[in-house]
Design brief:
alpha/beta; disordered N terminus; Transcription Regulator spoIIAA
């Protein structure tokens, strides 16, 4: 029984009008529906308390990282703090993931520093806003899944390259070198660091080394204490151990080493000595000078920010999906996530912020702290705003070598260094892509590395696919099709079998068939068994036409049997079917 249909709706004149159908454009666009709306279904007090605890924990972790990322990018610390607050809130409120935490990311350090040095801070804000518009458009037109087409070797290559550049950029503050503004160019940076090595500050080295050591030892120390009943039972209460263990290592390092520096008046640079007072009030809205000439100038940095933001946010969301164990967690919506990233990157620069994306370290912290919905990310932003508004003067005493130590630790964890040791287990194609992307990222920049990497990936893919196609003589007994005409058994016959995809990269594989036809006697029949020919493109069709010409010159005929639907359709639509005999679909 067919389902009932709604009657036509009468208009004002009484005539019936058919129900409106969605326009083709509306069907091509992704609906704007934040995950928060679905996550609040069945939301209760228990889930809110879990999100409150997770968001507070993430806010404490985000505090030192946001300042460190901004300073390393050549911006004042408040740029990173308010980016974490504004963009972090918008990404959680509007995003397509349950537990994603947005804000400034370590991957942007090298990119932002290069843009600031080459174009200035005002143009950084313009390019960030333009990148936000591009990100929103990518999500709106359902292009979020295209990011997954980037090979993992390219992602690992540029991630490791960015990690190396972050580490190099922090050597100035970690060693306390007396040098001017560090250049963005790789070789110029190495030369500047080499010239300033005689100005090493031992106190800076000690603080940065202590910071890195603390970040490594702290979680392992409390894990060991809590797993040793004799120690945790006699020396520390179990609840005390758990409370201390929950303190994030970056916060412990930041507070303790800042206190040591202030108490002993160590001669090292601090946030206050380099940047002065951190504004304690709300950021002011400022619209940078905008013109189309400027936008055309900033095409490359805009594309770089948008590409890196899309890759980082969607990779982070995929990691979150793999780690999440909460029963309320759902797989992320990549298109909605990109639209949220776009809105955040348009709004944050107008309030003095920097580029933002999904952050893996804070997202993982959020999940492990028990987050159940995007409310945790919104709480993280609100708590961080409260800390900044109430305790901003305390940040003046933070030593820059400590922030450099935190970033050195971030760079080490960011890189997938084991992949270099595992290269011997993979193909030459994989090695070439990973190593070339890594070297280009370090020596040139991310945009060049990704462009060259994707071009190499396409070329290597074409080469590999072309190697899968083959045309081989078919020496088996002739098989008769169920229907249709058959080759004349009394005439000389060449039988070949086609395997794979006959496309522009494999068209030359038919040259041996043409050579065999040219050496065959007059009136030769060429029978191509195409049951294993999976696909055909126009270049492959042109190769078949060249084969037909060679057969015609010998006064023979070309037969193609058992064609798959796609090659058969192309041959019929092109009109080549009039020159080929025996066209039948495969019998199996």
């Amino acid at each position: 029984m067919p389902p009932p249909t709604l009657p036509p709706t009468p208009d004002s004149s009484g005539a019936a009008t058919p129900p409106a159908e969605p326009s083709p454009w509306a069907q091509r666009l992704h609906p704007f529906r934040p995950r928060l709306f679905d996550a609040l279904a069945g939301y209760d007090r228990g889930r809110f308390l879990a999100d409150l605890g997770a968001g507070t924990t993430v806010a404490i972790v985000a505090l030192p990282l946001a300042m460190a990322f901004a300073i390393a990018s050549g911006l004042p610390p408040q740029a990173g703090l308010w980016t974490a607050i504004i963009a972090g809130f918008l990404i959680s409120f509007l995003g397509g993931a349950n537990a994603q935490i947005g804000g400034p990311a370590g991957a942007f350090i090298v990119i932002v520093y290069g843009i600031v040095e080459r174009y200035g801070v005002a143009n950084l804000l313009i390019s960030t806003a333009c990148a936000g518009v591009l990100l929103f458009a990518l999500g709106l037109f359902k292009l979020g899944t295209l990011v997954r087409f980037i090979p993992v070797s390219i992602v690992i290559g540029f991630t490791n390259g960015i990690a190396v550049l972050i580490a190099l950029s922090q050597l100035k503050d970690a060693l306390g070198l007396q040098m001017g503004k560090a250049p963005a160019d790789f070789f110029s940076l190495l030369a500047a660091l080499g010239r300033a090595l005689h100005t090493v500050n031992p106190w800076s080295v000690a603080l940065s080394a202590a910071c890195v050591a603390g970040l490594v030892i702290w979680p392992r120390l409390w894990a060991w204490l809590s797993s040793t009943p004799r120690i945790s039972g006699r020396v520390l209460e179990g609840r005390t151990v758990r409370s201390f263990a929950r303190l994030p290592a970056p916060v412990v390092a930041l507070v303790s080493l800042s206190a040591v520096t202030a108490y002993f008046q160590l001669p090292v640079d601090t946030i206050g000595s380099r940047f002065g007072q951190i504004p304690q009030g709300l950021p002011t809205f400022a619209l940078p000078a905008f013109s189309w000439d400027t936008v055309r100038l900033l095409v490359t940095p805009t594309l770089t920010i948008a590409l890196l933001g899309a890759i980082e946010s969607l990779l982070c969301a995929r990691v979150a999906d793999q780690l999440a164990t909460d029963p309320h967690h759902r797989k992320h919506d990549p298109n909605q996530e990109l639209m949220a990233q776009g809105v955040a990157n348009v709004v944050a620069p107008l309030l003095g912020g920097m580029p933002a994306t999904g952050t893996i370290a804070r997202t993982v912290t959020n999940i492990r702290s028990g987050a159940t919905s995007p409310v945790a990310g919104m709480v993280h932003a609100v708590v961080l705003a409260g800390i900044v508004l109430l305790a901003a003067p305390l940040a003046l005493h933070v030593p820059l070598p400590v922030l450099a130590g935190i970033l050195l630790f971030v760079a080490w964890n960011m890189g997938e260094w084991r992949e270099f040791a595992r290269l011997r287990h993979f193909s030459n194609h994989y090695r070439l892509l990973l190593v070339s992307t890594f070297v280009l990222t370090v020596v040139f920049d991310l945009t060049v590395a990704v462009e060259v990497g994707i071009a190499l990936a396409c070329l290597l893919f074409v080469k590999r696919m072309s190697s899968l196609f083959r045309a081989e003589p078919d020496r088996r007994a002739a098989a008769r099709d169920a229907d249709g005409p058959q080759p004349d058994a009394t005439l000389p016959t060449l039988r070949w079998r086609l395997h794979g995809t006959l496309f522009f990269g494999a068209a030359s594989k038919l040259d041996p068939v043409i050579a065999a036809v040219q050496a065959a006697p007059q009136g030769v029949q060429v029978v191509l068994d195409a049951r294993d020919l999976l696909a055909l493109d126009t270049t492959g069709l042109d190769a078949l036409e060249q084969l037909h010409k060679a057969v015609a010159q010998q006064g023979g005929s070309l037969w193609m049997q058992r064609l798959q639907p796609q090659p058969l359709s192309l041959i019929e639509r092109s009109g080549f079917a009039a020159h080929v005999r025996g066209l039948q679909p495969p019998t199996r």
